[in-house]
Structures are given as structure tokens and as C-alpha cells.
Design goal:
This protein is mainly α. The chain has a domain of 237 residues. Helices cover 71% and strands 3% of the residues. It is built from 15 helices and four strands. The strands form two sheets. The protein has a two-stranded antiparallel ribbon with strand order 1-4. Strands 2-3 form a two-stranded antiparallel ribbon. A hairpin with a 7-residue loop joins strand 2 and strand 3. It is globular, with a radius of gyration of 23 Å.
Length: 366
């Protein structure tokens, strides 16, 4: 009799299957919604499956570093780091440097990452100082910092390059001899990492194994990092900043380190992204990095207070799957592929807006 009562109590706690389904959907509403959108979109897109898989694999490989770079500040309680755009700028500065001096191949890629690292550390340190003065408003502050830094970046490469900053490779300059061209060909490092280890398991499908292995290594290192003392300090800071201070954790320093790590990973990520794209749009390649990376992470089920590399990878998969499908679906449904483009931008901003709204609602009802 007692056993039956205990079993009944356990079943009551678990709830009915309908209640469990509601709980699952509530917990994973965003990724489930995107899975449904992707399935419906694929049906209307009527595109070859191999082509779709090929595009998804390529996008997961080239975007993963950028999206995963957001995880550390989230765990540290700083929300979504829109200022990874500064890291992207650091990566682009390094790419302009190696193109200017003719470095190419795998060594050129490594030199670019080496040059980008101290620049990203400096940018991350300055960003961390500012964000420490804006506790509770880190996301909007980091977004404004990105706009501010973009102005300085454009001033340097439009006005100072070719005048105060010497440019050895004159092909990089505008016809006036002042300012870097809008578009730079990265032929020297094109697919240099992707082609290092590449397999073709079936006709039409290309898998950049070397890039995916590097992404897997990053995920492994992120996991190890959060088991370290510094990683645990970041977790404690993210959970409750006041208790972390009482526990003797140097909260300010810990938060700055989190932003530095995020900025450096973003710099490397932008370099890996552009070696796959093969062209650097000097004044625009970095602009949407923060927006699309944040949206990808949120699509995977992350929140502005909790994120994992699994959510990052799932988000990249679903977000870019929808990006690939939507123009084709728009073309077939209304004979206008531009509808798909508008939908993609709407989704990017919409996901971020809904996530922030839900977080605010959760905090209010906590």
C-alpha cells in the first residue's frame, strides 16, 4: 500500500504526458519553433538535399568560433557580448597586415592570428573596464561600444592609411592613394585551413575536417576551462555577483578576463570566417558579427544568463539552415526571393528581442 502511494506521488510530481510535453516546449520553445520552421521551409524550398547539407556544414565550420566566443561572458553574468565586433575588427586588422606584407598560406593564417591576439587583448581589456562601470546594462553598452569602435576603425583605414600609416602594397589603397579599398582579395589564405584536411564522402558533399576538428578542440577547451579555478570564479560571479565578492573573488578582474577571452576568440573566429569567404569587405565584414552570432546562440536555446557550446552548435545549425532555405522558399511561394532576405533579418532581430523580453519576465517573476 505504501509502495503504491509512493509511486502515485512520483507520478504526480512528474505530471501527465501532456504536462511533460508542455514543460519541454516551454523550456525549448525557440529551438523547437526553428526546427518546425526549417522543416516547413525545406518542403517549400524544393532544393537538393546534398546542396543543403554542404552549405550547412560549411557555415557551421566557419561560424562556430564567433558564436562560441559569446559563451564565456554569458557564464560570467555579462549577458550577450555584442562587442565581439571589436574582436572581429582585430582579426581584420591582422588580415590587412598580412595582405600588405605578402604573408600567405598556413603560415600567413597563423601570423594573422598571432598579430590579432594582442590587439584583441587590448580591445577586450578596454571593453571590460567600460562594462565594469555599467553592471546590469552590459549588453546595450557593448552594442554602443561596437558602434563607437566602428567609427574609429573607419577613420583609421579611410584617413590614416596611406598618410600616417604607411601601406607597402599600393593595390590595397584607393585610387587617391589614401584609404584602404572597400574589398580586399584574401587569395593568399583562401581555404587554407579548410583544405588542410578535407574529405568528400559522397558526390557534391565537401567536409572541411580540419576546421571542424579545430571547433571540436575549442569546445573541449571551453569545457576544461569552466572546471578550472578561474572558470568556477566566473560561474560564481554570474550566479550572484554580491556573494562572489563576499567569497573573496575579484569580480572586476574576473569580468575583464571573460571579455578578453571572448574578444580574442572572436578575432580568431573572424579570421577563420574570412579565410572561407576569401574576401574582406573592409568596412562592413564586421558589422553584423555581433547580431548574427547572438541570434544563433539564442536560437540554440541559450539565454542571456546560461549558454553551452552544444546550444551554440545547435543554434548555428538551425539559424543558418533557415538562412539557406528562406530565399528559395520565398521564391517558390511568392516568386520573390527578396521576401526570404527580409524574413532572415526579421528573424535575427526578433529572436534577440523575444529572448530579452522572456529574460525580463523571468527576472520579474523570480
Amino acid at each position: 500500500m505504501e509502495k503504491d502511494i509512493k509511486l502515485e506521488a512520483i507520478e504526480t510530481q512528474k505530471g501527465t504526458p501532456k504536462d511533460q510535453l508542455k514543460k519541454i516546449f516551454k523550456t525549448h520553445a525557440v529551438p523547437i519553433t526553428f526546427i518546425l520552421l526549417c522543416v516547413v521551409g525545406y518542403i517549400f524550398a524544393e532544393m537538393p538535399f546534398i546542396f543543403l547539407v554542404n552549405e550547412v556544414v560549411a557555415r557551421v565550420a566557419r561560424n562556430s568560433f564567433l558564436v562560441i566566443s559569446l559563451i564565456v561572458p554569458v557564464i560570467a553574468g555579462m549577458g550577450m557580448n555584442f562587442s565581439i565586433v571589436l574582436g572581429a575588427m582585430a582579426g581584420q586588422i591582422a588580415l590587412i597586415f598580412i595582405t600588405n606584407y605578402g604573408f600567405a598560406g598556413l603560415s600567413g593564417l597563423l601570423i594573422a592570428m598571432l598579430i590579432a591576439t594582442p590587439v584583441a587583448i587590448l580591445f577586450g581589456y578596454l571593453t571590460g573596464i567600460v562594462l565594469n562601470k555599467a553592471i546590469g546594462k552590459e549588453m546595450i553598452t557593448s552594442m554602443i561600444l561596437g558602434f563607437f569602435a566602428n567609427g574609429i576603425y573607419q577613420f583609421i583605414f579611410l584617413v590614416l592609411a596611406g598618410t600616417i600609416i604607411p601601406i607597402a602594397n599600393k593595390d590595397l589603397l584607393l585610387s587617391t592613394g589614401i584609404g584602404i579599398k572597400n574589398s580586399i582579395d584574401l587569395a593568399g589564405i583562401r581555404y587554407v585551413l579548410d583544405d588542410l584536411i578535407k574529405i568528400r564522402p559522397v558526390t557534391g558533399l565537401v567536409v572541411p575536417v580540419s576546421t571542424l576538428l579545430l571547433v571540436a578542440f575549442l569546445c573541449f577547451m571551453i569545457t576544461l576551462f569552466f572546471k578550472s579555478k578561474l572558470g568556477q570564479d566566473m560561474r560564481a560571479t554570474g550566479q550572484n555577483i554580491h556573494i562572489a565578492k563576499v567569497s573573496g573573488i575579484n569580480v572586476g578582474k574576473t569580468r575583464i578576463i571573460a571579455i578578453i577571452i571572448s574578444t580574442v576568440l572572436a578575432a580568431w573566429g573572424q579570421i577563420l570566417f574570412l579565410q572561407n569567404i576569401s574576401t574582406l569587405q573592409t568596412y562592413s565584414s564586421h558589422e553584423q558579427v555581433g547580431l548574427f552570432s547572438v541570434a544563433s546562440l539564442l536560437v540554440g536555446g541559450a539565454s542571456i544568463s546560461k549558454a553551452t557550446y552544444k546550444q551554440a552548435l545547435l543554434g548555428i545549425l538551425l539559424f543558418h539552415l533557415l538562412f539557406i532555405i528562406s530565399p528559395f522558399a520565398g521564391q517558390n511561394l511568392v516568386n520573390n526571393s527578396q521576401i526570404g532576405e527580409f524574413f532572415r533579418v526579421f528573424v535575427a532581430y526578433g529572436v534577440i528581442g523575444i529572448a530579452l523580453l522572456l529574460h525580463s519576465w523571468e527576472r520579474k517573476n523570480a
